[in-house]
UniProtKB/TrEMBL annotation:
Lineage of the species this protein comes from: Bacteria, Bacillati, Cyanobacteriota, Cyanophyceae, Leptolyngbyales
Alphabetized PANTHER family for the sequence: PHOSPHOENOLPYRUVATE SYNTHASE
The protein's name: Phosphoenolpyruvate synthase
Residue span(s) of domain Pyruvate phosphate dikinase AMP/ATP-binding: 18-341
GO process annotations (BP): gluconeogenesis
EC class (word): transferase
Length: 798
């Protein structure tokens, strides 16, 4: 039985196996429309794959043919079931013969440049069983077809397998399970096929839509996700088919997506992940102020629209791309079609078709003002406070406002504690601003370009930190938002899980703020895996740099304050361990503090920081050690010391000697660890252990930054800063395995396990001792750890 159907050969009796959109796209291609080449992976594969999975829960044994009726009002159950199904799909390997067949078919795919296909897009194509849609109508409503997100991947076996399973897992997102059930659609009624199309060098892309009056084109530079994500305001063109004239309205196009050139560095054989094909470029002011489409290209659209009008009476929304080829001029392709539903409901308008699906189902929030990285989850509505002068911060910030700025610095902690949310033009997922927002539990969007220009103080905003978007909060939106609070709680605020099954891998939390202690200590976790001292001291030193306390003769007071604060964490978690990471004061991040005016560095991320700063000036480090000694003297022996950003064994030996002089090594429970984040530790870990290192904590943020040469604070580098990159994963595996051989514990405390839950299976297999995550990720991480350990136990028993 065939598993693959080529677009130019699909027949009418194959509709259910290829889904609505692929079926209609094939009709267009067979009618001679400029549809890009492609093939469809049969819906049969998805069902057969679900049947091959060894489900640990009997509830899912018959998933491929079941209705899976759930209580969608029970947030805990819904999230747990959704996570369990999706995680199992991602961790179950495809049969090897499937991956071989899939890769061979992709290589037979005719690319847009007649060269071997380097990257493809996997698009979902759904159909409802027992339906017979008429010409260019769909068996499911158009919004249902948008529930599943397309996946872009390289064309090798491992990348294709990973992308395919990611797409299949989309079927079981919590929001999707709610949609199927409330629409009275049983899972076994849905046929999920996958349309596979090549991606080349796109000059431009966008949408073509016929309205009640005329045809409209939206266009941007590069690939279409820039429009779908709301990251650009596309050019708008209105076509008059009677006389062939076009009216144009220029948008704002500051970035563009394209396929990168790193296809030779694809997926890692151990993890199934690799460098992502989609890369983000910033555009010049000249390109921003230039119309995307030229006159002859617009006439191609006029001719295409006339033909579509003559051939079809339906309302249509088509995606298109203008690809660079060996031919001249570039070639226009249609890449996707969205048509009306079989029930007579028309396709969405061009604006609502571009809104993220969460908006369609749960929000109806409209088009975002700005978009960026979803740095801290949650949604809220509040007025904006825009800060443009970073040298003069407002001291009277109105509590409960949304802070809008170009960059967030660690010394802004008092401001952030008053804020209802934060929007920053710069910064990445691992920047201090993102870290602080996640710990404080306020929504944050970072890397939101032009936010300070598009938003004014006093504007009423809705910030969506779960999706990385910011909306203008109109009166209608406020009413909609108020009506959706129950759904928001259901989908985005998971209740704390009562951990019933013990797990072997320690689950710990990252902390810095004492006002989160009661909640953190109440969780079933094994301790604090990372106590961030830099953010902790912001709470206790009156907005003054710690060096100023030393310079003004207040060393004893500094030691007292440090010991008092550290003791709070030790007391709350005793007897569970608290791993205190000593100060890593990067020069550019604390310049706003009184006494923080230190010399400028060309690249502070690689400057005087970590243990090297202790060697140059040990006074502050010695004060920290004195504070730790006081903590032990008061009876709290559960605090461990972790040294940050250790470059050399000699730096460690210097610090160890200071630790010994402070008397800390006399306490039997004391341990001295290092952060494993400078790549040199990969080669020198045996020497570190010989010198006295008792454990390592892998910091994936700095490790990724140094291995890939990417500044993790730059939002534009977000797609390049990949903590799941094969080089990073191999480094993590080597560190864990080497630590195991040397007989020392190894924890991991970066963002990678939270962003990529499938990585946890590998971490457990490699033998990681502990995983430390932010408070909001404790429950999901426990679940992933439990699943990974069960799988590992199953392998060992075989």
């Amino acid at each position: 039985m065939d598993n693959f159907y080529w677009l130019d050969r699909i027949s009418s009796n194959q509709h259910l196996q290829v889904g609505d959109r692929a079926f209609h796209l094939s009709r267009l291609r067979q009618k001679g429309y400029p549809v890009i080449s492609g093939f469809v992976l049969s819906a049969r594969w998805f069902r057969e794959f679900l049947e091959t999975i060894e489900w640990s829960d009997p509830l899912f044994f018959d998933l491929a043919h079941s209705s899976l009726r759930l209580n969608v009002e029970d947030a805990r159950q819904l999230q747990a079931i959704s996570q369990q199904i999706r995680q199992t799909i991602l961790l179950t390997p495809l049969p090897i013969e499937w991956t071989i067949e899939l890769e061979a078919t992709v290589q037979a795919l005719h690319s847009v440049t007649d060269e071997p296909t380097q990257a493809v897009i996997l698009r979902p194509s759904l159909a409802l069983a027992s339906s017979k849609p008429r010409e260019l109508t769909t068996s499911l409503h158009s919004e249902a077809a948008d529930l599943l997100e397309a996946q872009v991947c390289w064309s090798d076996q491992i990348s294709l397998e990973s992308g395919l399973k990611q797409l299949w897992a989309e079927m079981f997102r919590a929001r999707n399970l709610i949609y199927w059930q409330r629409s009275n659609i049983a899972l076994h009624q849905i046929h999920l096929a996958v349309l596979v199309q090549p991606i080349g060098v796109a000059i431009a892309s966008g949408y073509l839509q016929n309205t009640q009056i005329d045809w409209e084109i939206l266009a941007t530079w590069g690939l279409e996700p820039a429009i779908a994500n709301g990251e650009v305001l596309p050019d708008l063109y209105r076509l008059n088919l009677d006389n062939g004239t076009v009216s144009s309205q220029m948008g704002s196009k500051t970035i563009a997506y394209h396929i990168g050139s790193s296809s030779n560095e694809k997926a890692d054989s151990q993890t199934g992940e690799g460098v992502r094909p989609l890369q983000l470029d910033s555009l010049s002011e000249l390109q921003d102020q230039q119309f995307v489409l030229e006159a002859d290209q617009l006439q191609q659209f006029v001719q295409l629209a006339r033909r579509l009008t003559a051939d079809f009476g339906s309302r249509l929304l088509l995606e298109w791309a203008l690809y660079r080829t060996d031919q001249n001029p570039p070639r226009l392709y249609l890449t996707q079609i969205k048509a009306q539903s079989d029930d007579g409901l028309m396709a969405q308008s061009i604006e609502s078709a571009l809104i993220n699906l969460d908006d369609s189902l749960n929000q109806g929030f409209g088009t975002p003002i700005v978009s960026g990285l979803a740095a801290a989850s949650g949604r809220t509505i509040a007025q904006a406070s825009v800060i443009t002068n970073l040298q003069h911060l407002p001291i009277d910030l109105k509590p409960g406002t949304i802070l809008v700025t170009s960059v967030i610095m660690p010394d802004w902690l008092p401001l952030l504690k008053q804020a209802a949310g934060v929007i920053a033009e710069q910064g990445g997922m691992t920047s201090h601003g993102a870290i602080i927002a996640r710990e404080l539990g306020i929504p944050a969007v970072v890397g939101a370009m032009q936010a300070t220009q598009r938003i004014k103080t006093g504007d009423s905003l809705l910030i969506d930190g779960s999706d990385g978007k910011v909306y203008k909060a109109t009166a209608a939106l406020k009413r909609e938002f108020a009506n959706q609070q129950t759904a928001e709680t259901l989908l985005n605020q998971t209740a704390a899980m009562e951990i019933k099954t013990p797990i072997a891998t320690q689950l710990m939390v990252n902390l810095s703020q004492s006002d989160r202690l009661d909640h953190a200590a109440s969780l079933a976790v094994d301790g604090v895996g990372l106590l961030r001292s830099e953010l902790m001291v912001m709470e206790i030193l009156d907005q003054q740099h710690p060096q100023l306390w030393l310079q003004t003769g207040r060393r004893d007071k500094l030691i007292d304050r440090l010991s008092t604060q550290i003791s709070k964490f030790a007391r709350a978690f005793a007897p569970r361990p608290v791993f205190y990471r000593s100060l890593d004061l990067r020069s550019h991040e604390f310049r706003g503090l009184e006494g923080g005016d230190v010399p400028f560095e060309t690249n502070p991320m690689l400057g005087v920081r970590g243990t090297f700063s202790y060697v140059l000036n040990p006074a502050l480090f010695e004060a920290e050690l004195a504070a730790l000694s006081q903590v032990y003297q008061t009876g709290y022996s559960n605090v461990r010391l972790v040294l940050p950003f250790v470059r050399t064994v000699e730096e460690f030996i210097f610090c160890r000697q200071r630790v010994e002089q402070a008397g800390l090594t006399h306490h039997p429970d004391f341990q001295l660890w290092i952060m494993a984040e400078v790549p040199s530790v990969l080669f020198l870990l045996p020497e570190y252990v010989q010198a006295g290192v008792q454990g390592i904590a892998i910091g994936t943020s700095d490790l990724t930054q140094l291995l890939l040469g990417v500044d993790r604070d730059q939002g534009l580098m977000a797609l390049t800063f990949d903590e799941h990159h094969p080089a990073v994963l191999r480094a993590i595996a080597q560190l864990i395995e080497t630590a195991h051989k040397l007989g020392i514990p190894c924890s991991i405390c970066g963002l990678a396990p939270v962003q990529y839950p499938s990585l946890i299976d590998s971490l457990v297999q490699w033998g990681v001792t502990a995983i430390s995550v932010n408070l909001d990720a404790v429950e999901s991480t426990y679940y992933a750890l439990n699943q990974a350990e069960q799988k590992r136990l199953g392998r060992l028993q075989r």
